[in-house]
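Box S1 | Example of a co-folding query
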Amino acid sequence: MHIQKNISLKKYNTFRIDVRAKEFVEINSDEEIQSLILSGILNNKKFFILGGGSNVLFTENFDGIVIKINTKGKKKIKEDSEHIYLLVSAGEDWQNFVEYCLNNNYAGIENLSLIPGTVGAAPVQNIGAYGVELKDVFYELQAIEIESGKKVKFNKDDCEFSYRNSIFKNKLKNKYIILSVILKLNKHPKIKIEYGNIKQELEKSGIKNPGIKEISNAICNIRRNKLPDVEKIGSAGSFFKNPVVDNKTYFRLKNKFPEISAYKLPESKYKLAAGWLIEECGFKGKTIGNAGIYKDQALVIVNHGNANAKEIINVMKKVQKVVYEKFGVKLLPEVNIV
Ligand SMILES: Cc1cc2nc3c(=O)[nH]c(=O)nc-3n(C[C@H](O)[C@H](O)[C@H](O)COP(=O)(O)OP(=O)(O)OC[C@H]3O[C@@H](n4cnc5c(N)ncnc54)[C@H](O)[C@@H]3O)c2cc1C
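Box S1 (continued) | Returned holo structure for flavin-adenine dinucleotide
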């Protein structure tokens, strides 16, 4: 374990923001994490746990230690006639893991294809896409408490998962490092193709009874067409959460904007498509300084090359203000702003 000084974080965040970390350490085993904690190095020091850096906006040089989780490994821990339980290390790349499951015919995460980042970060915001969330396949995770160095298990209820949210973004923010996650995958796929354009995409290729690989391919095609390739354009994917509003607000908006895009949720709530709200305000494809809104998806703020965090925040604030003025709805960032 080697603590480096004054390291640029540009290649470690998909927004490609060029800030520096006072200290930076890459962790390759759970034992290294434990000894880092027990050494007391983190005491009274600012720290940040980093996975793939695909859901973070660094706004200034980080005056503390960035701990980059690179731990690798996956193993089957049990199975029954219906399910297979896989334990996966936090530093595994999410998309590599999805491909491993597709190749072994383990079903349940095909709809979460092509989400950047690591397995360890997936529970933090309960990643979701195309009608599936991590919580649907989550069984348990192991984490280490930063204050004590004690290893603790969290089951699904403990994690308090909700839409793009978990206990690790709230009460337990910066209290634990997730070491590994156990996912409960299906041996017999339960296909979900009702969401978004999956059906249309499958029809284009003449596929009537898709398997999990075909669903994954269809979703990858859709995503490649509407999301920027982070190797070419800096972004953190959807910048804002889709706002959830009550019945009254929804019908007020629906009256005024009959085309509004929304999904009905339980308990008389509606989830509004933030992308639609932003597009209606004319932001889609707009460039503001070195940053802007992606041309094919209004929910995505992009770095056109040399944007600094101030320029990204400036776009964020402009969008929030105009959307609020037009619809009376507050947009909250999904991205972790550091
Ligand atoms: C092009 C693009 C598309 C995207 N599409 C989606 C999508 O469809 N659905 C979706 O949900 N998200 C999406 N995202 C967001 C992002 O990919 C996910 O949130 C992903 O899980 C982040 O993983 P990461 O390893 O990059 O996390 P990071 O950005 O490194 O970290 C995110 C947060 O998790 C914490 N963290 C990371 N690792 C650990 C750990 N081991 N223990 C404790 N805390 C940890 C960090 O401190 C930080 O607060 C997209 C992003 C991009 C760039």
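The longest strand covers residues 176-186. The chain has eight helices and 20 strands.
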